[in-house]
Amino acid sequence: MENLDLTVLRTLHGWRAAGQSALLATVVRTWGSSPRPVGSTMALCESGAVVGSVSGGCIEDDLIYRYSHATTRDGVTHDIPKGPPERLVYGVSADEAHRFGLPCGGTLELVLEFNPDPSLLKTLIDALAQGHLVQRRTELATGRVSLHPVVPPAPLVDDGKWLHNTFGPEYRMLLIGAGQLTEYLATMALFSGFAVTVCDPREEYRNSWSVAGVTLLTGMPDDVVRAFQVDRRSCVIALTHDPKLDDLALLEALGSDAFYVGAIGSRRNNQARRARLIEHFEQTEASLAHLRGPIGIYIGSKTPPEIAVSVMAEVLAVKNGVPLPPSMAVEAAKETDTIKTA
User: Rounded to 5 degrees, what are φ and ψ at 279?
Assistant: First the structure.
């Protein structure tokens, strides 16, 4: 499953390329509690079809009611207009907040762009597919759109004249090892919007792989990591428990811009791994600072699906820039448990 922004853009492009009218809605401002963050997008086709989300569903229903052939008011069909972008604010009053399913005190402002140019949408989609970070700039008075490559991710900007929204390529997860835990973690990563690749040179593990939508590679893990072109929207996780497969792959990943690099294993196994990398591969404590292990947050997990939940939660927290308290780390929590039971 690709990330939601890319799904919205691909679907919107398909509608527009087929000659259908459609709109793109972007959350540009929120006050109080909000179901979706600033920068969230959805697209609406003249048929009433919707992709993406700007709320829990009630605002989407209102937009369908306002702008599609799917509903009528007093027998009059409402078309998607062909003018410049418009603003809509939902939830100004308590009654509106309740009507549109917004949390208490929540207010949401949208910018609606009507009938975006399909050729520019295609250019944007192609750039994202090639791994580029692109800022889409919309002149609010006219609806004119331009695309600009950017390096650091930038927050949405709405200065009243221009809307700048930055779109990034898919987040990617490279998993070393095709065992049972990998199947659970890959499934969770897919529905979290990651493009997932699994690498395992062991035929007996690959032959039992059963998760659709995952790229399965057969090369040696360190070679795969190099060819993967790991970037700041990538994470690499070693899950084989086999130093011959895990260690060299981790070394390659640690030299990249990956936002998360980690390996499965007990506290003792992870200490042994660090010692090996320092003794045999000229690593230092500083160069291993970004190596996570034992991976996951501490939830008392014992089974493969529970461990996958723990690991996925940590990956998403790091991706989203959420600092986790030290007490949630597996190693710290288990040390505390050991002290308590001593």
Answer: -75, -40
CA distance 283 to 289: 10
The one-letter amino acid code at 170 reads: E
Exposed (0-12), middle (13-18) or buried (19+): which is 268, by Cβ within 10 Å?
exposed
Two tokens at 228? 């993967």
The model's pTM? 0.72
Q: Is 120 helix (H, G, I), strand (E, B) or coil?
A: helix
Residue 152: which residues within 8 A CB-CB, separation 6 or more?
Answer: none
Residue 241 φ/ψ region, left for φ over 0, alpha for ψ in the -120 to 50 degree band, beta for the rest: left
169: nearest Cα among 215, 124, 131: 131
The mean predicted confidence, pLDDT, of the chain is 88
- Domains detected in the chain: 4-120 (no CATH), 172-341 (3.40.50.720)
Q: What is the pLDDT of residue 131?
A: 78
CA distance 198 to 236: 10
Has residue 182 got a pLDDT over 90? yes
* pLDDT score of 137: 97
Kindly tell me the burial class for residue 294, based on how many C-beta atoms sit within 10 Å of its own C-beta (0-12, 13-18, 19 or more): buried
Residue 33 has pLDDT above 80, yes or no: no
